[in-house]
């Protein structure tokens, strides 16, 4: 089947899937969970083939690690499905209800977006995670995986498709694109795909964002900042910076650039340097920073760099205003924090920093769907429309308007014979 | 000033504008209203120049009509601003609040999108309407008008900028792009513009949608359907079809294709034909329709055509399923209606028709922001993300997450020393 045919089928199936009951979708999720556990040996064997082939092609160690799908991963994805089953069904939720006039009731209900395109690199567990998220939210899904995970993706897809269709989901709601047509063909399918969710490296997501007209949920990079204000408690600031930078360095919500108020720099920086030394962090400082502590020199390029490594750039600023201006210039709009005991400065920072997540006295690492309590995460978005920040199931939803009448015509309202009442019900 | 410079200034101003109080924005709107009324003679003179130049260039009558900005238009736009002032300020509304743990509170608040790009054809009143909508919602705005309205646009822009900045709005929040650089330069400014709102003909909107990576609120066309089910009341069906088709033919929510259940066709079509004849509507029918009433033949092309004229295409279908399939194939996803007395069919139709507005026993002409009670309309969107259907002020909003902590670090939660509580407050 060609990609276009699969996309057309998915579009048709999406109509049926959108109207499926919460119960039937949850039953399908249960069936998928059972099938994955029952057939985990098959998955393991397929995964072995992928790993051996990748080793032959001398694929790098981190990619091999992401590629692995063992017993542990099977349990992980099933735990994810289980918690997904427990979430409230997002479809059909009434968002707004207005009586436009007697017997003329407008209702806006949450509704699935339609067809979600998912392009992912080596991690086959992403296939399970995102396709079950789509199922729960009533969306059809077109999957395009990396060739290095070909065998694992195929068996996982087969299991999910078979179990879900047997449980009553419409044929074609999920499709795996395996043809030789490349990722660029998907990026051009704006006629069939309503939203793209890329899963992979930053370079990969950036490539996708720049080469499609289809809306994308994702983030190209995460250059996160912390500003230590003059009234900050030094001990708290050290703890927060160490956690933000080192708790997990390769992620988008890790700290990359620290801004320090000039009036606290002399007291704060030597203590911070000690703490970061213990964690093996290299500091790159501006000239004023280097007058206080010994470190490498930071250049303009550093303010634009997401290290994803044990490196921190530091700049001393004259105060709140300069800190905010620096962040709004160099931040990727992901997560930025102020550490201060000053309530007024907190409010100004939170209002004027134009990022999806603005924090006060908390680690940048908190910006994450699970920590936010969303239960399931579609991704983190740095887009300015639709969904911003950590995106839960809600990000896969839009709405539709339903109007229930008794034969009303607009001519009566245009002529003044009748007039609108607009009574808000919900 | 180059377009890029104006865009950079707008980006900076948008940060300040987003944090402006409801009161100060309303004062600025009042000031704009007063200035427009005070300087209406200046506007009229400028408009005269545009109209004379356009006449010289033999611009068509409908464009000349749209171009006109007289006393009446000035009063209209001021009435619009007045009602805008009365609307609740959308900025800062708390959408969600969760205590992640003791003293660690996450709040999601509605926030302006940032910089809105508005490209409009000949109607200068669109400039006033959309820029005041942006001001109310705390968004900066870049305007690019048609050259035929150059003088009117310039004076309106000057009035709005001067009055609003004097009233405390940040310099640069509004910019008029008059340089010779063309519309395509705007379409490429995805670094500065967060959302595009095109105002103009369908061909114009379609061109914009196809030639930019910036998200667009709008609709290329409106091929709306009405399905007359076998249980429909004939009198009601005739009234609704006549209203949907003829109440105002040149608009996106006017009816273009009528689907009729085969069991009611013989009784219904002759009555309908009489009623449509009175209004001067030409019917184009499928073969089965032409076996019942005399009319022109409809071809495949008709199902894809938005006439925006006194023409209606009619197709007889075998029942609900065929009607839904036809609509999901040919509808532009704008507004589609079922006329029926059957509750089960209503529910199926409303669930399975994949359009922004699905109606039961009501005219398609109701799908409109003012009739829906939104007070102000940004446009009608056929997009599947962010905003769908008639879009009010809400369509110019996104949100930001604010996290208030007391020094919490993620390491404590990762190690199991602490655990999340996720207590929903709002």
Oligomer: homodimer
Distance between the termini of chain A: 46 Å
Largest interface chains and counts: A-B, 70 and 70 residues
Task: Find the count of extended strands of chain A (DSSP E, 2+ residues).
Answer: 17
Structural classification of chain A:
alpha/beta
Give a short account of the largest sheet of chain A: 7 strands, parallel
Strand percent estimate of chain A: 15-25%
Query: Kindly state the mean pLDDT of chain A as a whole number?
Result: 94
Number of helices of chain A: 16
Helix content of chain A: 40-55%
Radius of gyration of chain A: 25 Å
Instruction: List the uncertain runs of chain A.
Output: none
* Structural shape of chain A: globular
Lateral arrangement of strands in the main beta sheet of chain A: 10-9-11-8-7-12-13
What would you note in describing this structure?
- The structure is a homodimer of 426-residue chains.
- Helix content of chain A is 42%, strand content 22%.
- The model of chain A has no long low-confidence stretch (mean pLDDT 94).
- In chain A, the strands form 4 sheets. In chain A, strands 10-9-11-8-7-12-13 form a 7-stranded parallel beta sheet, with helices on both faces.
- Chain A is α/β, with parallel strands linked by helices.
- Chain A has helices at residues 3-18, 22-38, 40-56, 61-67, 71-86, 125-136, 150-166, 183-187, 202-210, 234-246, 265-278, 287-292, 300-303, 320-330, 343-352, 410-414, and strands at 94-101, 104-112, 115-120, 140-144, 174-176, 195-199, 224-228, 255-261, 282-285, 296-297, 311-317, 335-339, 357-362, 379-381, 389-391, 397-408, 423-424.
- The two termini of chain A are 46 Å apart.
- Chain A has 16 helices and 17 strands.
- At the A-B interface, helix 1, helix 10, helix 15, strand 13 and strand 16 of A face helix 1, helix 10, helix 15, strand 13 and strand 16 of B.
């Amino acid at each position: 089947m060609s990609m276009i045919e699969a996309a057309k089928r998915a579009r048709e199936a999406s109509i049926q899937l959108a109207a499926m009951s919460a119960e039937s979708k949850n039953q399908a999720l249960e069936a998928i969970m059972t099938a994955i556990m029952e057939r985990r040996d098959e998955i393991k064997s397929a995964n072995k083939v992928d790993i051996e082939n990748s080793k032959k092609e001398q694929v790098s160690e981190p990619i091999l690690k992401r590629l692995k799908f063992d017993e542990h991963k099977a349990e992980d994805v099933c735990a994810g499905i289980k918690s997904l089953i427990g979430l409230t069904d997002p479809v059909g939720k009434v968002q707004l209800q207005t009586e436009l006039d007697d017997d003329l009731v407008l209702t806006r209900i949450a509704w699935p977006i339609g067809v979600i395109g998912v392009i992912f690199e080596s991690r086959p567990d992403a296939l399970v995670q995102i396709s079950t998220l789509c199922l729960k939210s009533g969306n059809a899904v077109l999957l395009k995986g990396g060739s290095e995970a070909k065998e694992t993706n195929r068996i996982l897809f087969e299991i999910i498709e078979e179990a879900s269709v047997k449980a009553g989901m419409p044929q074609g709601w999920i499709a795996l694109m395996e043809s030789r047509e490349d990722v660029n063909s998907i990026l051009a399918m704006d006629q069939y795909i309503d939203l793209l969710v890329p899963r992979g490296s930053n370079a990969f997501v950036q490539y996708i964002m720049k080469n499609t007209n289809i809306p994308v949920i994702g983030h190209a990079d995460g250059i996160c900042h912390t500003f230590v204000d003059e009234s900050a408690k030094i001990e708290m600031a050290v703890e927060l910076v160490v956690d933000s930078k080192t708790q997990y360095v390769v992620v988008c919500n890790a700290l990359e650039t620290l801004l320090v108020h000039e009036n606290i720099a002399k007291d704060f920086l030597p203590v911070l340097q000690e703490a970061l030394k213990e964690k093996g962090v290299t500091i790159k400082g501006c000239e004023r920073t280097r007058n206080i502590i010994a470190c490498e020199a930071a250049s303009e390029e550093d303010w634009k760099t997401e290290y994803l490594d044990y490196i921190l750039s530091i700049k001393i600023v004259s105060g709140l205003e300069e800190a905010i201006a620096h962040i709004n210039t160099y931040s990727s709009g992901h997560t930025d924090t102020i550490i201060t005991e000053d309530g007024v400065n907190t409010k100004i920072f939170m209002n004027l920093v134009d990022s999806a997540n603005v924090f006060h006295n908390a680690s940048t690492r908190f910006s994450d769907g699970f920590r936010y309590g969303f239960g399931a995460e579609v991704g983190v978005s740095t887009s300015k429309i639709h969904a911003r920040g950590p995106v839960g199931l809600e990000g896969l939803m839009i709405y539709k308007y339903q109007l229930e009448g008794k034969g009303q015509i607009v001519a009566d309202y245009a002529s003044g014979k009748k007039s609108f009442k607009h009574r808000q019900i919900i």
